[in-house]
Amino acid sequence: MTDYLRSSRVALALASPEHDNELLLVNDRFCALTGFVSDEVIGRNCRFLQRDADNPEARARIHRFLEEERDPSVRTEIVNFRKDGTPFVNLLFMSKLKTRNGAPRMLFASQFDISRSRPEMLADYDEKLAQTLRNMAPILSESGIIMEGSLMTIANSASTIAQAKLLLSTLDDTAPLA
């Protein structure tokens, strides 16, 4: 499974379902998106990517996902920052990976920069993510792991890009002048 995740064409991360949800694995696409190398992020919670951004709706959705057994997955836009300080709107998808007896094993996450995306790019990402999830199902099953949630959480929407552009414009308006 690790090899498959590392070679995926979408930005992916695995995190612990316990303690502070520390990152266990990130792939090269995640590193390219954020500007961080894996050694800089492994063992940390992804919230450091938010810096001081105000993400109340996204944070509430993520917390509900983490705390509620009946929320198997979440998809939300959240403002993140690259290592160089550049803000971007991250379309975050998270799902719970559990053992067959229901014990949490890991958290699966995918990230996509929708800040300046076009609808066809989001559609391509959605298809790549859906294919990744379909391909992971048998690999996970062999390890006795089940991915909760469904592909229904992945829904292409032009409104998602419009919301991201609005979020980014508010960031651009409040960015300090050099």
Beta content comes to 15-25%
Terminus-to-terminus distance: 45 Å
The CATH H-level homologous superfamily: PAS domain
CATH class: Alpha Beta
Round the Cα radius of gyration to an integer and report it.
Answer: 16 Å
Summed up, the domain count is: 1
Number of strands: 6
Q: Using the 3D structure, state the CATH architecture.
A: 2-Layer Sandwich
Helix content: 25-40%
SS-based class:
alpha+beta
What is the residue-mean pLDDT, rounded to a whole number?
81
Which fold name fills CATH's third level, the topology? Beta-Lactamase
**Poorly predicted segments:** 150-159
Task: Please tell me what the overall shape is.
Answer: globular
Domain PAS: 18-69
Keywords: Chromophore, Flavoprotein, FMN
InterPro entries: PAS, PAS-like_dom_sf
Protein name: PAS domain-containing protein
Describe how the helices and strands are arranged.
Layout (H helix, E strand, L loop, with lengths): L1 H6 L3 E5 L7 E4 L1 H7 L3 H4 L14 H12 L5 E9 L5 E13 L4 E8 L7 H24 L2 E3 L10 H17 L4
Antiparallel strand pairs: 1-2, 1-5, 3-4, 4-5, 4-6
Q: How does this model look, in words?
A:
With 178 residues, the chain is an alpha+beta fold. It has one domain (2-169): PAS domain (Beta-Lactamase), CATH 3.30.450. The chain has 6 helices and 6 strands, in the order H-E-E-H-H-H-E-E-E-H-E-H. The chain has helices at residues 2-7, 28-34, 38-41, 56-67, 119-142, 158-174; strands at residues 11-15, 23-26, 73-81, 87-99, 104-111, 145-147. Strands 1, 2, 3, 4, 5 and 6 form a 6-stranded antiparallel β-sheet that branches. A hairpin with a 5-residue loop joins strand 3 and strand 4 (87-99). The protein is globular, with a radius of gyration of 16 Å.
